Amino acid sequence: MTRSTDTLVLVNPAAGRGRRKARLRDYLKRLEKHIGTFEPVFTARAGDENTILDAALARGVTRVVALGGDGTWSAAADRILANGRGRDVVLGLLPVGTGNDFGKSIGVRHQNIDAVMGAIAERRTRTVDAGKVNDRYFLNVVGMGFDIAVIDDAATTPLLRGDALYKFCALKQLFRFPGVKLGIAEGSNSPDTWLETLMLTISNANYFGGSFHIAPKAKLDDGKVDLVAIHDAPPLTRAKLFDIVGKGKHEGHSKVTFRTAVSFSIHFQGTLRYEADGEVYSSPSPIVVTSIRSALRVCAPA
Fold it and tell me: What is the arithmetic mean of pLDDT over 96-121?
């Protein structure tokens, strides 16, 4: 095969806490068989993705293949959209991260990797919505509250990974996290609801935290985001909620609020830390999350 010059293969060797080097090597070998020879570009530190992607998009690449997890995939989507290339660049995703949550919603999994590679090679895509939080694009979910406490805890828990890591840290934080008061509004309106909240997520896709089916009815092509607010509760009730959220059976529970809209703004006192596809940010009030309809072409198996 000839060398693929219109393709950027972006590799995050730290994805999955750097524990998936064998999978990375395997994927790179398989990918070469599918698309021809290429020179992969490796990130060395957080934030490298932005510089690498901006330079590649400026020189005219039309296919980006991102080997990593939700953070790497999200960075690729953000730079493609920020550069106005959502229509003419296809994005391929190869799962080597900790959760790979967005992949679960679009059919990109290690278990069907040959079909995923085929879709990338043939540029067989699905046009999907993206989300935008303040001035950054994302693919999967924005979370605040308990979610941030779990991410912080996971960063200091060295022996676990994947679903087990998130569930272990989440179980600890069920008895530690103090809760947060949040106001919910559609669009730029004033809040119509204030809640003492354990966790609030606004989702473009269905899963987060490795396997939590947080937004069972979210669709990637409806031009809307799905808000799920889990109300604060005593520890034992939190534990029960934790169990049913993991199974995607929390709709209709008295301690859970579901809402769907094109845009939400979340209000609070002072500043608040939140995560977008696993990367943590801080913002003054309000945090505004909007669906960008039919934003991006993502390679996906049939």
Answer: 94
Give the C-alpha separation, 191 to 185, whole Å.
4
Fold classification of 141-293 (topology level): Tumour Suppressor Smad4 (2.60.200)
Q: Mean pLDDT throughout 277-302? A: 96
Q: How confident is the model at residue 104 (pLDDT cuts 50, 70, 90)?
A: very high
**Token pair recorded at residue 75:** 């960075």
Nearest to 201 by CA among 242, 229, 173, 167: 229
pLDDT tens digits, residue range 150-180?
888 887 777 666 667 777 887 788 888 889 9
Sequence-distant (6+) residues with CB within 8 A of 150 are 166, 169, 170, 173, 209
Q: Give me the pLDDT at residue 165, please.
A: 77
Which long-range CB contacts under 8 A does 172-175 form with residues at least 24 apart? 173/146, 173/149, 174/146, 174/235, 174/238, 174/239, 174/242, 175/235, 175/238
8 A C-beta contact, residue 69 and residue 278: yes
Helix (H/G/I), strand (E/B), else coil: 248: coil
State residue 1's pLDDT score. 46
Residue 202 has pLDDT above 70, yes or no: yes
Handedness of CA 293, 119, 16, 80 (dihedral sign): negative
Alpha-carbon torsion (105, 109, 111, 115), positive or negative: positive
pTM of the shown model: 0.91
CATH class of the structural domain 7-128: alpha beta
**CA distances in angstroms from 196 to 76, 182, 200, 256, 282, listed in the order given:** 34, 7, 10, 11, 20
Domain ranges of the chain: 7-128, 141-293
